[in-house]
Amino acid sequence: xxxxxxxxxxxxxxxxxxxxxxxxxxxxxxxxxxxxxxxxxxxxxxxxxxxxxxxxxxxxxxxxxxxxxxxxxxxxxxxxxxxxxxxxxxxxxxxxxxxxxxxxxxxxxxxxxxxxxxxxxxxxxxxxxxxxxxxxxxxxxxxxxxxxxxxxxxxxxxxxxxxxxxxxxxxxxxxxxxxxxxxxxxxxxxxxxxxxxxxxxxxxxxxxxxxxxxxxxxxxxxxxxxxxxxxxxxxxxxxxxxxxxx
Length: 246
Prior knowledge:
This protein is of the alpha/beta class. It has a single domain (2-234), classed as Bira Bifunctional Protein, Domain 2 (BirA Bifunctional Protein, domain 2, 2-Layer Sandwich), CATH 3.30.930.10. It is built from seven helices and eleven strands. The protein has an eight-stranded mixed β-sheet with strand order 7-8-9-10-6-2-1-11, with helices on both faces. A three-stranded mixed β-sheet has the order 4-3-5. α1 (18-30) crosses α6 and α3 crosses α5 (197-208).
């Protein structure tokens, strides 16, 4: 089936802003050619990102985020809360449903990391584990004719900040919202100190497509109302915190 794909593309974002990158991801998803498979690679500065159906009060320390000026974002996909920084590589696989296979995506990442010397494994929650600890989680989004699979790979992230900001202030035992599943985490640099983001980016790119990667900038898509409107939505308090947020 995969041989029927006419084109594979790898695109790097030139932005490190979470709202811009979520909007770029949506822009690429909405403009996807049905005969195309795409790998979007992106990174963000300090950010906490919650899943679409989560309550930020029980997922992170909102007071600490506000005091320290760290943004909170809500993505379109489900799944749990994650910490982003420049040591955390974000990936998005997208294609028409005809070609979409989340297991193949994870196997591609697994083999790429194994080629870099990391004996990683995949569990039944679509997490990637290194020596029994989670280094990558995934979430998914579908439309009628296309799907995407995105996630993060902890490479050289600041794990102390991850643990600090993802420790919630409140407990709501009866909350109807989706809760994150707590897992012990690690990162690639804990096992190979000289690993860097570019090593992982290059291996993923080469594993996905031998063609040169492209880049995308915010300036290239600002004219598109689809991008602009989605960017506005991603930054709105109603979207992030819920209707009526002040």
